[in-house]
Amino acid sequence: MPVKNRFAELLPEIKAWRHDLHENPEILFDTHRTSAIVEEKLKAFGCDEVVTGLGRTGVVGVIKGKSNKSGKVIGLRADMDALPILEQADVPYKSKVDGAMHACGHDGHTSMLLGAAKYLSETRNFDGTVVLIFQPAEEGGGGGREMCEDGLMERWGIQEVYGMHNWPGLPTGQFAIRSGPFFASADQFDIVVEGKGGHAAKPYLTIDTTVVASQIVVALQTIASRNVKPIDKIVVSITSFETSSKAYNVIPQTVHLRGTMRAMSEETRQLAMRRLHEIAEGTAAAYGATADVDFRDGYPVMVNSDEQTEFAAKVATSVAGDCAEAEMTMGGEDFAFMSNERPGAYILVGNGDSADVHHPEYVFDDEAMPAGCSWWAEIVEQRMPAA
Ligand SMILES: [Zn+2]
Ligand SMILES: [Zn+2]
Fold first, then answer.
1. Helix (H, G, I), strand (E, B) or coil at 26
2. What is the average pLDDT score of the chain?
3. I need a surface site. Which of 33, 37, 152, 383 has the fewest CB within 10 A?
4. Which residues form the Peptidase M20 dimerisation domain (predicted)?
């Protein structure tokens, strides 16, 4: 059961949708144009229900099968937002928005799920209900979390959820997946070190925040090397070190550190968070300074459920011939909020030899779309076979 013929027929149309979205990228929750297009198309396809405004600019479409003896409800999720990147890719449908680009292929994700929606609305060859989820703000904004907080799962009684991401480096249209922890938790944090500024010639009259913050930066590396078990995965990176004074002869009063923390289990994440507080606050105290630690916008670990992953891989094999075992990635994925609430599986679809996602020369491979659309459709038809 290879790629569905209907998607080969629909490909020019689905490509045109994507190229239009690509020319008009929108960032985080500002997916107003994109959301309006998704809404309009879902209505035109004849979805039984189309709801907007979940997670601010999220859109949900509901398609009922020919029958509903199973009582099953499956959620299929795509993301819609772009990145604040100036496009360098040489494509005829280049971004028209200066400093914004679909550099993660979410234009492709949205178009593939729309393609599946069109097919499923036409055929309805299943026994149950499909909930199509189009979320904004995957790239660090927590759009998936906000849709869940707005009652996404409860409102339609979603029982399991599926997601998909294109993957440069994997042959176009091939699939890869893994069970268990797949994408890392991703937390941003700020540490504000407060000491006592003063004349650089009289350090004995100050509490030198540059020295204190430097000790904290180095000491934080012991979370990975001394606190977390070597077989558990953790990344703690300080990405910004900003002093309150830029002068040559002033010891700054304040140093602002920024960074990100990634882990592959909630236990490791909690341990690392605790140690980060202890190390920053304790080190500062040892020098008579203070450190104020603030964690923000965290994504939990994205865990694929065993049963749904096995099923997703079986479906991928039926579409593409086989399905590879994916490696874990320390990247974060907002789908984690949905798969935390319901059993689910997240799969990678190959994007060939393109530049990596988040690179200004990245290009989504349209030839991956028939496979991606077919996977969505087969998930529905094989999970809820027509009665
Ligand atoms: Zn991304
Ligand atoms: Zn992405």
1. coil
2. 97
3. 33
4. 188-285
* CA 143 – ligand 1 centroid, Å: 13
Q: Please state the residue numbers annotated as binding site for Mn(2+).
A: 104, 106, 139, 165, 358
Specify which residues 257 forms β-bridges with: 191, 241
- Ligand with smallest separation from the Cα of 166: 2
Q: Are 41 and 114 in contact (CB under 8 A)?
A: yes
CB 49 within 8 A of CB 63: no
Residue 78 · residue 379 · CB < 8 Å: no
The bound ligand whose nearest atom lies closest to the alpha carbon of 79 is 2
Distance 106 CA to ligand 2 centre (A): 6
Instruction: In whole angstroms, give the CA distance from residue 317 to residue 347.
Output: 12
CA 378 to CA 123: how far, in whole Å? 12
Distance 207 CA to ligand 2 centre (A): 43
The torsion of the CA quartet 191, 83, 26, 59, rounded to 10 degrees, works out to -80
Structural domains for the chain: 5-182+301-383 (3.40.630.10), 185-299 (3.30.70.360)
Distance 224 CA to ligand 2 centre (A): 27
CA 362 to chain centre: 17
- pTM beyond 0.90: the answer is yes
Tell me the sheet residues that pair with 303.
Answer: 181
Instruction: State pLDDT tens for residues 125-154.
Output: 999 999 999 999 999 899 999 999 999 999
Residue 311 CA to residue 162 CA, distance in Å, equals: 11
Cα 135 from Cα 161, distance rounded (Å): 13
Please state, in angstroms and rounded to a whole number, the distance separating the CA atoms of residues 299 and 182.
Answer: 13
CA distance 217 to 202: 24
75 CA → ligand 1 middle, Å: 21
Q: Which two tokens mark 132?
A: 């199509």
